[in-house]
Amino acid sequence: MAVSRRVFVATAAVLAVTGATRTALAAPAARAEDLAYRIPVSPDDTEADLVRKASQVRPTARQIAWQRLERTAFLHFGVNTFTGLEWGTGDEDPDVFQPAGLDTDQWARALRDAGFELAILTVKHHDGFVLHQSRYTDHSVASSSWRDGRGDVLRSFADSMRRHGIKVGVYISPADENQYLHGVYANGSARTDRTIPTLVEGDDRTPSRSYALPATDYGAHMLNQLYEVLTEYGPVDEVWFDGAQGRIPPDKVEKYDWDSWYTLVRSLAPDAVIAVSGPDVRWVGNEGGLARDDEWSVVPVREKDYGRTDYALAYDAPDMGSRDALVQAKPVADHLQWWPAECDVSLRDGWFYHADQQPKSVEQLTDIYFRSVGRNAVLLLNIPPDRDGLLPAADVARLREFRERVDRELPEDLAREARTTVSPGRVTVDLGREREVDRIRLAEDIRYGQQVESFVVEAERDGAWTEVTRAGTIGASRILLLAAPVRARRWRVRVTGSRALVRLVEFGLYRSRV
User: pTM of this prediction?
Assistant: First the structure.
């Protein structure tokens, strides 16, 4: 998909062209890691203080790279695939796991052809069954007769994804029903320094570095599995934790060792975003794949449970980052943080494969795309492999149709080679002749934060500027759908409210071919 070539600097009062191209933005002028991705706040801060601080929050390099992906894939696969459950019990017979036709290259080809650049595998779900050859549990592929106990789905997955140019992500569930049954999960053990990796009998590893990290018995179990995954399977670009607790008595809750887990991930996979229950990426608050109308990447947060980044407002609050939200969160917020939204949804009704379910329609997926990617979020689409270890043919076809539909919705950018002029408070594009437009795409240069609070798009018709549409936030991506095509030669975007200097990196105009 083509994008506009020029970068603009804008406030509601002042605009100036920087002259840079979007492709040049891959090399930031300053190290993003040196910029503040979180800024402390106080209950004494005024609204003006909060807005000023919010305008100064900047994403890290890993967050910028993640937001540019736009669409990522999830693959829920494990014993649930064979038992028909969505949440396993932990006492499954490992031998139930029998994906006789496992072909992770087929997964990778389908995802590549559908436009995905990163895929996340459920290395461990809540049942505790792991898809790699782990030293720390018997509830794994090593205890199945599948491939004589030598099968390793994670290795096959990682190799296939990289072979087809797709980045690798891993989901390791904090909840673990199997370890609860074995007296490790939620056993009330104290946090003490644990040596990671913890070598076991017959262990032939000679780690170049070990870590002394505070953890419970179960926290150490997770650290050891994280160490295996992050040191033996190549580079990882996303580590995905949810906050689920095991289905256990409420007085047996395991308090997760988030600080130690984060420390280990940062050391072993420094380029990986830690998602959902993590400091880099937040859950949008629903499993329908839908972002808010105005989705802020800068939101108020608080720390809890050994350093876990948590919402200062409700996780599903309708407003997460406006001026009103910043003020509302004052009594409990510790920081304002760059914490962009990930919108997760499954292609089928369930997260795991069920033979009686069918994939969502192209229309449903396209609507989700515009209400996630088009609202400053990243879409995480789950495609569950079946019992043969393949992505079902119907799902592969639907993924291809989905990509083709998005390509038709947003074909060549009509403004790509257009003449652009800049004046106070606006960017104007002259298409050279009248063209019909029904899709508009905007983006800020998020290296410099998220600043736009409101804007208007206008078209010149019969010698007068007429409002076509308006909205609030922009962020990394804002796509606006017009109810009917508008025909005009000259178009402009006018920023009507901002927190600080605005840098627009994209003002794209499209005529859909649907």
Answer: 0.94
